[in-house]
Amino acid sequence: MGINMIKEKKGVRLDHISKIYKDPKTGKDFYAVKDVSLDIEPGSFVTLLGPSGCGKTTTLRMIAGFESPDEGEIYLGDEAINELTPNKRDTAMVFQSYALFPHYNVFDNVAYGLKLRKLSKEEIHKKVMEMLDLVELSGMENRQTNQLSGGQQQRVALARALVVEPSVLLFDEPLSNLDAKLRVSMRTEIRKIQQKVGITAIYVTHDQAEAMSISDKIIIMNSGIVEQMGTPQETYYSPKSEFVADFIGEANFLKGEVIGKNLIRVNGIELESNTGTLEIGKECKLVLRPESVTLAEDGIVPCEVVYSCFMGSYQNYHVMVGDTLVKLEEYNPKNKKIYQVGDKAYLNFERDTVFAL
Ligand code: ATP
User: Fold this and answer.
1) Separation between Cα atoms, residue 41 and residue 344, nearest integer Å
2) Fold of 250-356
3) Is the distance from the beta carbon of residue 61 to the nearest atom of ligand 1 less than 6 Å?
4) What is the pTM of this model?
């Protein structure tokens, strides 16, 4: 089957892109996106991730051509595309609301872009059927779209975007209208289809689990700027800022001081820890992931248990280290000592699982 239809894989490059909007309340201009530079590799799946209002959708819409940047240039492959209208851009967008034509059946929804391009009837039929096969909707071509489930409608939207053979596929929170379970299965589907087709994909979400599970690289945005771009592992294990550490997964922060190269002091205790480029003598924060810390009778940092709850696969603890709350998850609690509220204990962790910021 002719699924391998990408003419040429193209990357996307944003070169110092900014977008300025007027705040409707104050009437003042502000940067919704500020000086963003990104290099998205051909054929990769990248996610723009961040809290509401951080500028993800605006960035995606500038790539699609629905908004134009006030500063900077966008490239698709080697071509500067700022001046091109959306339909001239070789990109296709899948929207949160699906944006299907309600009076068309499935076949005609998918065929729409091909008809505009004036392909022959036979060609249209062949391509649409191939696409419906790819998104596992074969046999549904005559259904009206209002007779489909949310997940099926999103598959139609995906087929409609892919059928015109764009070089880059853009997704604007495509799964947020689906229930939690379907969201999880659809994200796996989208990833599988993207890999099968080999297309470059740029995906907007505010759900970090979705971003982790689907992406080659995650771009974490905050207040219009890019905080970090990296693989899910890089952003989890080597976050560049407290914001990233807190946004990707759970994190505990213990106040400390850098007292030497890869040496910090926390609560009067000297610890080896990766200090990166931190200056000696400066304050820092030790980042502990909940799953990399255990409780024991003896150990590195003394603490007191203030919450203890059995969760099945793990025991959930909250402990106080001085005046700082630390949350941890102790897996396989059945074979371990269970600490109760009020117990004194120690935190233990593998030194290479913690780092300082
Ligand atoms: P969400 O997850 O809520 O969709 P987002 O990260 O996608 O958020 P954007 O939609 O890109 O954020 O918006 C970035 C900022 O720009 C927000 O403060 C938003 O209110 C503002 N904004 C977006 N569009 C406009 C507009 N047309 N005019 C004025 N301000 C706008």
Assistant:
1) 51
2) OB fold (Dihydrolipoamide Acetyltransferase, E2P) (2.40.50)
3) no
4) 0.87
